[in-house]
Amino acid sequence: MKVARFHAPGDIRIEDAPEPVAGPGELKIRVRNCSTCGTDAKIHKHGHHHIVPPRVMGHEIAGEVVDTGARVQVIAAIPCGRCEECRRGRQTICPNQESMGYHYDGGFAEYMIVPAKVLAVNGVNAIPDGVGFAEASVAEPLACVLNGQSLARVGAGDDVVVMGAGPIGCLHVRLARARGAARVFLVDVNAERLAMAAELVRPDAVIDSNPVEQVLKLTGGRGADVVITAAASGAAQEQAVRMAARQGRVSFFGGLPKDDPVIALDSNLVHYRELTIVGANGSSPAHNAEALRLVAEGAVTVSDLITHRLELEQVLDGIDLVSRGAAIKVTIEP
Ligand SMILES: [Zn+2]
Ligand SMILES: [Zn+2]
Predict the structure, then answer these.
(1) pLDDT over 90 (residue 198)
(2) Cis previous bond, 334, omega within 30
C-alpha cells in the first residue's frame, strides 16, 4: 500500500509499505478520508517533538473497518483514561496524552491500525447516516473548536470575534452561530483568505486591519463578549484582550511558536473588566462524538469548507495549499 511518511523537516515521502496487521484489541481501517490542517504544515516545516521518524502522518481520520465495513471516525488525541485529570473528566489535559500520526502511524495511508488505547477510551465513533467520510474527517478539528467554545462559554446573544480565517476560524464562526451567538465578526490580516472564508461562512462583518478599533466601533464601544484567536499570533492575543467586553471571555485557541510564546498583557484590563482568559488543548473522545452529531443534525455544516480533495500522492501539494492559506480544508482520499 501507499503511505505518506515524515522522515525529517522538509522530507515527507510517498512510499510503498506492507499492509499493517491488527494485533489483539486493535482495529484495521481502510482510510477513506484524512484531512490536513495547519499542524501538518507545521510538522512538515519544523518536525514535532512527539514525532520520532519515520512516521505516517495524518490525524483527521475517517474510514471503514476492514472486518465489518462499519463507517467510523477516529479521534486524534488519545487520553490515558487513568490519570487524575482523566478520572476527573478532563481528558483534554491528560499529561500522558498521545496522538494519532505522532506516536502512532496516522491516516495518510490506504490502511491504518487503530491502537487498543484508542478503543479503550471510546475513540472510534460510528459515522451517522447521511454524513460522508470527508465530512466525518472534519469532526476532529470541529471537536477541538467545540472544546474551545465550551471553555469560553460561547452562548446565546454573544458578540463573538474570531481572529484567523483559516479552516479552524471558519469552524469557529459556524459553531458560534449554532450556539446562538448574536453576531460573529471575522478578522484576518490576509485580505484574500478573509474574503474566501467570508464567502463561505458569512460573518456579520470582516475586519482586515485595526481590529481593536473596528470591534469597538461595531459594538458601540462595549467590546465583544467572546474573542477567539485562531491564529499562531501573539499580536492577535494582545489585541483580543483589548477588544473584550466587560466580563468577556478570551480564548487563546491557537498556540504560539514555542520559541516566541511571551506576550504583553495589561493585567488591569483582566482585573477591572473581570475578563476570563482560557486556553484549549485538542479535544476529548466525547467532543468528537458531539462534533459528529452536530454535523449529522445540520447544526454545523462542514461539507462546503472542504475546498480540495486530493489523492495520497498529492499530500505535499495539500500541505502547500494549507501553508499558503490558499485553501480552506484540504482532504486526502487514499
Ligand atoms: Zn488537525
Ligand atoms: Zn490521563
Answers:
(1) yes
(2) no
First vs last Cα of the chain: how many Å apart?
10
pLDDT digits (tens, 9 = 90+) for 266-291: 999 999 999 999 999 999 999 999 99
Same domain flag for 62 and 34? yes
Please give the distance, rounded to the nearest whole angstrom, from the Cα atom of residue 233 to the centre of ligand 2. Answer: 29
- Asked whether 139 and 73 are in contact (CB, 8 A), the reply is yes
Q: Please give the residue range of the domain that contains residue 245.
A: 145-279
Residue partners of 34: CB distance under 8 A and separation at least 6: 58, 59, 60, 61, 62, 106, 107, 108, 137, 331, 332, 334
Asked whether 33 and 137 are in contact (CB, 8 A), the reply is yes
DSSP state of 276: E
Residue 332 · residue 311 · CB < 8 Å: yes
Per-residue model confidence (pLDDT) at position 174: 98
Q: Specify the CATH number for the domain of residue 195.
A: 3.40.50.720
Judged by its nearest atom, the ligand closest to the C-alpha of residue 166 is 1
pLDDT band at 258 (very low <50, low <70, confident <90, very high): confident
Q: How many Å apart are CA 86 and CA 7, to the nearest integer? A: 32
| CA 272 to ligand 2 centroid distance, Å | 36
Residue 234, C-beta contacts closer than 8 angstroms, at least 6 positions apart = 256, 260, 261, 262, 263
Sign of the dihedral defined by the CA atoms of residues 73, 76, 82, 88, in that order: negative
Contacts of 45 (CB under 8 A, 6+ apart): 9, 10, 323
Closest ligand to C-alpha of residue 82 is 2
- CATH number for the domain spanning 7: value is 3.90.180.10
Which of 231, 201, 230 has the alpha carbon at shortest distance from 303? 201
**Sheet with strand 55-56: strands edge to edge:** 11-16, 2-8, 55-56
The three grid cell numbers given for residue 75, joined into one nine-digit string: 479521534
Tell me, yes or no, if the pTM score tops 0.90: yes
Give ion ligand 2 contacts, CB < 5 A: 79-80, 83, 86, 94, 96
Grid coordinates representing 159? 458578540
